[in-house]
Specification:
By secondary structure, the protein is an alpha/beta fold. The protein has three domains: 261 residues, Alpha-Beta Barrel (TIM Barrel), CATH 3.20.20; 89 residues, no CATH class; 113 residues, Alpha-isopropylmalate synthase LeuA, regulatory domain (Double Stranded RNA Binding Domain, 2-Layer Sandwich), CATH 3.30.160. It contains 16 helices and 16 strands. An eight-stranded parallel beta barrel has the order 1-2-3-4-5-6-7-8, surrounded by eight helices. It has a three-stranded antiparallel sheet with strand order 11-12-13. Strands 14-15-16 form a three-stranded antiparallel sheet. Strand 6, helix 7 and strand 7 form a beta-alpha-beta unit. The longest helix is centred in the N-terminal third of the chain and has 17 residues. It starts with a strand and ends with a helix. The mean pLDDT is 91.
Length: 490
């Protein structure tokens, strides 16, 4: 069995509070979605703004493999805006519940039905693929819902969609509803679920096993309020738990997840299923012992399948075997006596409530082995210029010992710290693609001369390091943390 994936990251996902993408950012995400293998990309709502239309046009001009779609209301002006962008299809959404019709539209049901059918006809007459979507369908009268879809079928709508707009569906009700609709309607049926009660993925899966042929999803489950059904969760659950296939390239899931998170400034929670950094992370000694013997003991699928990575986390719950396994993964060889000393230091820190980062482990290892941390990349010079009515600019000079070359670069930023970090990243762009995942600052003490503690999380591919540095100068603390993290990653 196989189902289609309709991705609405660029429409419903962008409606996440606080998120607004530029046309170039939308295009970048669309390219990644196309490489991922989604069947339909809902690129936005063309009527929204000039910038939205510009973004949709850029995506259309890219000639991607995916069908490019625009959200529209049952209004000719909306459809005209979509036609201007030359999209392949429209997601034509019609309110269908009594509460939406009575309080939002304030129109009789027959008038709503009539305008919906005329809009479908108008879109079809202009050569568009039409997905007729019933908004708030899970609170609608089932007879009206079926009538809407049957009338749409008569005027050549291509697909219909049942929207659980406020997330009130349950898996059992989803199964019953989609079985009935799929029996009554001969057109392909889509499911669009929201996550208000945390059931979006479960409801989507229930719909798919009950006859729905397409699901509406977003990367990382982003969207209005509590979000939408997460693409990576639906696709993986359907494949590994139910045996359904898609065109999705699973190994690209983690990568696309991070692209969306970065461009939308919405960090992925560590415990997020499939693509979270803790999705395949293990600390407990019993678990790690099982992994060493057979990874299937504590992993339902291999992390590499979805482009993620197995992580061994050290803390007070870790055993010696976990530490030894972690050191082996890092390519560090130690004697039994040295292993015991490292283990005791980790236990002590763990009992103090300390989370042992890779940086902490390297400090402990170097201390036990009596060696200094090797600096492969050294900061020789840093100059930052900032002030009133001056765009912050920074220049750096780095020495890369590995290739015995000097790297010099200049970059602007929204502030002096941003400019300095941008300059370092720019200088290293030909050496290593380092991404700043997280940046936090805490003041230690009071007064204008107080120490600041900078915490950063850097990423290179699927490798992550966390570093903390303190200094009275926030720029120096930030750059020292970045440089140490870079050296750990490289």
């Amino acid at each position: 069995m196989k189902f289609r994936v309709f991705d609405t990251t660029l429409r419903d996902g962008e409606q996440t509070p606080g998120v607004s993408l530029t046309p170039s950012e939308k295009l970048e995400i669309a390219k990644h979605l196309d490489e991922l293998g989604v069947d339909v990309i809902e690129a936005g709502s063309a009527i929204t703004s000039k910038g939205e239309r510009e973004a949709i046009k850029l995506i259309v001009k890219e000639n991607l493999n995916a069908e490019i779609c625009s959200f529209v209301r049952a209004l000719p002006v909306d459809i005209d805006a979509a036609l201007e962008c030359e999209v392949d299809s429209v997601h034509l959404v019609v309110p269908s519940s009594d509460i939406h019709i009575k309080y939002k539209l304030k129109k009789p049901k027959e008038e709503v039905l009539d305008s919906a059918i005329k809009a479908v006809e108008y879109a079809k007459d202009h050569g568009l693929i039409v997905e007729l979507s019933a908004e708030d369908a899970t609170r609608a009268d089932i007879n009206f819902l079926i009538k809407l879809f049957k009338e749409g079928e008569k005027v050549k709508a291509d697909r219909v969609c049942v929207c659980d707009t406020v997330g009130v569906l349950t898996p059992q009700k989803s199964q019953e509803l989609f079985k009935k609709i799929c029996e009554e309607i001969s057109l392909p049926v889509s499911v669009h679920c929201h996550n208000d009660f945390g059931l979006a993925v479960a409801n989507t899966c229930s719909a798919l096993i009950s006859g729905a042929q397409q699901c509406h999803v977003t990367i990382n489950g982003i969207g209005e309020r509590a979000g939408n059904a997460a693409l990576e969760e639906v696709v993986c659950a359907m494949k590994f738990l139910y045996g359904y296939d898609t065109n999705i390239k699973l190994e690209k899931l983690y990568e696309v997840s991070r692209v969306v998170a970065r461009l939308m400034n919405l960090p992925v929670p560590p415990n997020k299923a499939i693509v979270g950094d803790n999705a395949f992370a293990h600390e407990a000694g019993i678990h790690v012992d099982g992994l060493i013997k057979n990874t299937k003991t504590y992993e339902p699928i291999s992390p590499e399948i979805v482009g993620n990575k197995r992580r061994i986390i050290l803390g007070k719950h870790s055993g010696r075997k976990a530490l030894k396994y972690k050191l082996e993964l890092m390519g560090i060889k130690v004697s039994e006596e040295e292993l015991n000393r490292i283990y005791e230091k980790i236990k002590t820190l763990g009992d103090l409530g300390k989370y042992i980062t890779d940086h902490d482990l390297m400090v402990i290892v170097n201390e036990v082995l009596g060696r200094a941390t090797e600096e492969k990349i050294k900061l020789d010079e840093l100059t930052v210029v900032s002030g009133n009515k001056i765009t912050p600019i920074a220049s750096v000079k780095l020495h890369y010992k590995g290739e015995n070359i000097t790297l010099i670069e200049t970059a602007y930023g929204v502030g002096p710290v941003d400019a300095a970090i941008n300059a370092v990243k720019k200088a290293l762009s030909g050496v290593a693609d380092i991404k700043l995942e997280e940046y936090k600052v805490n003041a230690i003490g009071g007064g204008t001369d107080a120490l600041v503690e900078v915490s950063i999380k850097l990423r290179k591919g699927t490798d992550i390091v966390e570093v903390k540095k303190s200094d009275s100068d926030i720029i120096r603390a930030s750059i020292n943390a970045v440089m140490e993290g870079i050296n750990l990653l490289i």
